[in-house]
Amino acid sequence: MCGIVGYVGPKSTLDVLLGGLRRLEYRGYDSAGVSIIAPGGQLETRKKAGKLDNLIAEITNHPLPIANIGIGHTRWATHGAPTDGNAHPHLGGPTSKLSLIHNGIIENFGELKAELAAIGTKFASETDSEVAAHLIAREFETTGDLPIAFANVVKRLHGAFTILVIHEDQPDVVLAARRNAPLVIGLGDGENFLGSDVAAFVEHTKRAIAVGQDEIVILRAGSVEIRTFDGTPVTPVEFTVDWDASAASKGGWSSFMAKEIADQPQAVADTLMGRLGSDGSVRLSEIDGLSAQDIKDIDRIIMVACGTASYACDVAKYAIEKYSRIPVQVELSHEFRYRDPIVTKNTLIVAVSQSGETMDTLMATRYAKEQGAKVLAICNTQGATLARESDAVIYTHAGPEVAVASTKALTAQITAGFLLALFLGAGREKVSTTELRRLGHELLKMPAHVTEVIENLDLARKLGKEMANAKSVLFLGRNVGFPIAMEGALKLKELAYIHAEGFAAGELKHGPIALIEEGQPVIVIVPSQRDEDSLHPKVISNIQEIRARGAKVIAIAEEGDNQVADYAEHVIFVPQSESMFAPILTVIPLQIFALELSTAKGLDVDQPRNLAKSVTVE
Ligand code: M6R
Fold first, then answer.
1. Residue nearest to atom 4 of ligand 1 (CA)
2. What residue owns the CA closest to ligand 1's atom 7?
3. Are residues 307 and 427 in the same domain?
4. Per the structure, how many domains does the chain have?
5. DSSP H or E segment with residue 240
6. Which one of 186, 239, 275, 319 is CB 3.0 to 4.6 Å from 421, fit for a cystine?
7. CA of 613 to the centre of ligand 1 (A)
8. Are strands 521-525 and 207-210 parallel, antiparallel or unpaired?
9. Selection from 475, 506, 492, 514 nearest residue 601 by Cα
């Protein structure tokens, strides 16, 4: 879950590395460091615990020379506490001429460390990564060929890793290896880049290559060579990044999260763009990897994801089952993978991930593929591992999401889930063309509705600020409101570090109602009063039950709901919409609520403690 950047070329290497690290800091922010090789051939390293600004202060106090080659790292600690000593890069060899950065976990580092210790190697850190640095330096002393030495060592490593290496004696080359962790090459003119994702270099080039599993990159200013770990040449496939650096900058907003909440009308509109015809047809050309027969043969869908993405799946389940009548089961990827699940060739796995690099989800999909299932990804990141390893991909077009808390990626994922539901409904002939046309028309109204919600968030902001001292907040919902209740609770936990739980409102009297005491804040997602099937009266009854026991109720309800105000302290209204599609709207006040509450507590909303954006370890 660390961020990695490498550069070789004529620009100021330090500027390229620090710019890349700034955009990758969302991947981890426990410590940061850089190594460069000065034109005279001297390797120089600076590293510091804490956020990137600490490293920049360190470099200001101890400046680095101009250089044309270097590597940089921002860390999310796994082995060893976030200290200066455990920060990357790590140096290898008795004369410390090799510098290495690593993202991932080297699972067999214990035995490799023992092997090195037995021959007298001294370690400067507690990390698994330093072991690789020493092994490669020693192997280079033996072979005299850095790429060969590098390949010999990475073949011995188990687990997940992206590793970048530079060496004083080979001052024109950056070596990189990838297994189970992301790595992308940026192609420049007389310069080349490496990054954990394209954000590392998008300011300099939009031409990119996604590095495959068990591949090594030999990167020079004028050339890029890719080989497998066994030395077989790889023919790269280039792609063009479809967003620019401004999309990954705050652009005047107080935080990335605030900006990304405001990006949601565009994220939803871009995800819908070109996919709904006025005749009610749903065009998902990306699914061409699945034939009409494949779709007819599906007897069950299993959606796998983690965290917020799993709540997008929970919402999609209601829509897919309703419109296509295919049974859907939603599984947390890590639970699915390790419980011997029943998967057949007629099971469609739908894997949902913003980053496309979440290791738990990758492992779940690999397992399902081994069982013969087809995998459809819903992914926000071009060139991501999940997209490349799936049979088909529906891209969400939310643009880069930098804040650790997922916002626009979620609304885009839910939108993609609705598109899939309509697509399958049409393919299985379970929805009439007239109904499809009506639903498509309603879905196309959602970006405008989202804009309206965003323009009317004053009450959610005020309530969030006022509740900065709350010790616990509960969230209730039914049907598609239930996953949104859980998402509201997750947002509060990760951003404001307070106890929060989301419950199915119907489940209250089976236990959770015991939590209600005088003054307990409860946020309730109220379904549409206009929809006979929407359980509105039942949710109103649930509100009465908790109010009778002292709860302070904040309702999120549809405009025109003339009953809810009588039962809640506050009501935040959202525009009327097709009730299936309402989660795209009702989640937004909850995002703002968490943002304001966290800000009022003086916390860092973009980089909450202990977390990282992409969870690339299991
Ligand atoms: O990149 P992914 O969508 O696979 O990430 C999944 C979760 O780690 C992610 O949604 C996480 O729960 C968010 N921090 C929640 O805001």
1. 353
2. 307
3. yes
4. 3
5. strand 238-240
6. 319
7. 7
8. unpaired
9. 492
196, 308, 385: residue to mutate for ligand 1 pocket, most atoms within 8 A of CB? 308
Run of H or E residues at 599: helix 583-600
Together in a domain, 98 and 158: yes
- 519 confidence band (pLDDT: 50, 70, 90): very high
Pocket of ligand 1 (CB under 6 A): 306-309, 353-355, 358, 361, 404-406, 490, 494, 614-615
Dist. CA 519 → ligand 1 center (Å): 31
Q: How many CB atoms lie within 10 A of CB 472?
A: 14
| Amino acid sitting at position 511 | G
Q: Out of 2, 306, 313, 379, which one is annotated catalytic? A: 2
Ligand 1 geometric centre to CA of 93 (Å): 38
> Both 228 and 269 in a single domain?
no
Check 48, 317, 491, 613 and give the catalytic one: 613
Q: Is-contact 457 407, C-beta < 8 A? A: no
Last residue of a domain, one of 444, 472, 507: 444
Residues 437 and 569 in one domain: no
CB neighbours of 527 closer than 8 A, spacing ≥ 6?
478, 479, 480, 481, 534, 535, 536, 539, 558, 579, 582
Q: Active site includes 369?
A: no
* Interval between CA 375 and ligand 1 midpoint (Å): 19
Query: Which of 225, 247, 269 marks a domain boundary?
Result: 247
Residue 358 belongs to domain spanning: 250-444
pLDDT in tens, 29-45: 889 999 999 988 899 99
* Distance in Å, CA 1 to ligand 1 centroid: 12
CATH number for the domain spanning 491: value is: 3.40.50.10490
Could you tell me if residue 449 is inside a domain?
Answer: no
Burial of 46 (0-12, 13-18, 19+ CB in 10 A): buried
Ligand 1 atom closest to 409 (CA): 3
Q: Is 159 helix (H, G, I), strand (E, B) or coil?
A: strand
Task: Convert the pLDDT of each residue in 182-241 to its tens digit.
Answer: 899 999 999 999 999 898 999 999 999 999 999 999 999 999 999 999 999 999 999 998
pTM for the full predicted model = 0.84
For the segment 284-288, the average pLDDT, to the nearest whole number, is 80
Tell whether 450 is covered by a domain: no
Q: Is residue 306 annotated as part of the catalytic site, yes or no?
A: no
On whether residue 451 sits in a domain, the answer given is: no
